Amino acid sequence: MKKVLIAYSSRTGNTKKVAEALCDAADGRAELVECGKAADLGMFDLVFAGYWVDKGEPDKIARQFLRKLENKKIVLFQTLGAEPLSEHALGCFANAGKYISESCSVLGGLSIRGAIDPNLIKAMCNFPEGHPHAPTAENRKRWLDASAHPDQKDLEKASAVMKKYLDMYDKQFVPK
Ligand SMILES: Cc1cc2nc3c(=O)[nH]c(=O)nc-3n(C[C@H](O)[C@H](O)[C@H](O)COP(=O)(O)O)c2cc1C
């Protein structure tokens, strides 16, 4: 019986790619599902919960999923346009915590950069000067830097992270 669930929400495919890399690295021990389609969670003990960052928060579908979790060990994973360990990115983890029940324990998180939807970039190019997302040189650089992610290195990182968590989980939570 599989005890590990990888549930993800993805609008343009970045978070899905990371979820798939996590699943591949789990050597057949994990089930992969979209957050919106996750039905019976009873059998799972360890849940990798993935979301794309939407205005500093987990996206809406993922928020609904996080709220459903009870008595689970959780590893959060997120993709976002900003640098993955920036203050903004770390704040997004903190915001995800708001949707998680006290009955769960969060074991950790994985933050990966993800290309921003070109339609959103087009819209931001029309934002007026002074707007935080206006097309300044700094913002344009950030959008460009994000555009190649998640890349192979990111997916390898996800894979290594899965192996580490499974190792830790087996040592600390699986009775001998
Ligand atoms: C409406 C919207 C809001 C977003 N808000 C943020 C944000 O607050 N911070 C950030 O770093 N990236 C933000 N992004 C970028 C996405 O989080 C990023 O592109 C993510 O990798 C998309 O994942 P997906 O391909 O799985 O949908 C936003 C994107 C959209 C479309």
Name the bound molecules: flavin mononucleotide
Low-confidence spans: pLDDT under 50, at least 5 residues?
none
Number of domains: 2
Form type: elongated
Q: Give the percentage of residues in beta strands.
A: 15-25%
Q: What do you see in this structure?
A:
The protein is α/β, with parallel strands linked by helices and 176 residues long. The protein has 2 domains: 4-114 and 150-173, 3-Layer(aba) Sandwich (Rossmann fold), CATH 3.40.50; 116-148, no CATH class. Helices cover 40% and strands 22% of the residues. It is built from 6 helices and 6 strands. Strands 1, 2, 3, 4, 5 and 6 form a 6-stranded mixed β-sheet that branches. Strand 3 and strand 4 form a beta hairpin. Helix 1 (14-25) crosses helix 6. The longest helix has 22 residues, at 152-173. The radius of gyration is 17 Å and the shape is elongated. It starts with a strand and ends with a helix. The mean pLDDT is 96. Residues 10-16, 52-56, 79-82, 88, 114-117, 120 line the site of flavin mononucleotide. Flavin mononucleotide binds at residues 10-16, 52-56, 79-82, 88, 114-117, 120.
